[in-house]
Amino acid sequence: MLARKIITATISGTLFALLLGFISPNPFGDSGQNYFYTTITVVNVYLLYSFPVILFYGVLTSIASDKIAEFLVKKSGNNKKEMLLSGILHIIFGLVLLPFSLGAAILFFVTDRLLQKRKKSFHWLQTLKSFAIPAFVWIASLGVDWIAHLITELMFQG
Predict the structure, then answer these.
(1) How far is CA 38 from CA 49, 82, 136, 137, 146, in A?
(2) Could you give the CA distance from residue 63 to residue 89 in angstroms, rounded to a whole number?
(3) pTM for this entry
(4) Enclosing H/E stretch for 60
(5) How far apart are CA 39 and CA 18, in angstroms?
(6) 120-155, pLDDT tens digit by residue?
(7) SS3 content of the chain, % helix, strand, coil (to 5)
(8) Would you give the distance in Å from CA 61 to the centre of its chain?
(9) What are all long-range contacts of 133-136, with beta carbons under 8 Å and residues at least 24 apart?
(10) Measured by CB atoms within 10 angstroms of the end CB, which terminus of the chain is less buried, N or C?
(11) 43 and 17 Cβ atoms separated by less than 8 Å
């Protein structure tokens, strides 16, 4: 379960940073730059701050949510009740920093359920490889930022 939760955190943490970048590309006010450039630039900031929180807090609270739901529904044996209760607990744990943490919690829950449905067990090598997802987004974002700066400099030189 821990391996799947960590994989879930790498996927949902990266998706959260990307979505937040497109929804709120400039959280500190209007800088006058274009939407795409601002979005690409801020994704790294969102990854820097949200990814560790989603990785640690998200994994721990998700495991707790699933275990509590499993314990409470143990006698009935109804998987739909367990999923509903686990989802409610994810939402409760996600109420810490409204609306951001709530969105991250829901994204984490949905991603985890999709992974759980797709494959029952994950290996630690897969878990380590999943860290390539946020690393790739980080490097790609830096690369696009670098190219944008290079183009801007070339345009203003000539």
Answers:
(1) 17, 41, 19, 15, 13
(2) 10
(3) 0.91
(4) helix 59-73
(5) 8
(6) 789 999 999 999 999 999 999 999 989 988 988 888
(7) 80, 0, 20
(8) 14
(9) 133/10, 133/11, 133/14, 134/10, 134/13, 134/14, 134/17, 134/47, 134/51
(10) C
(11) yes
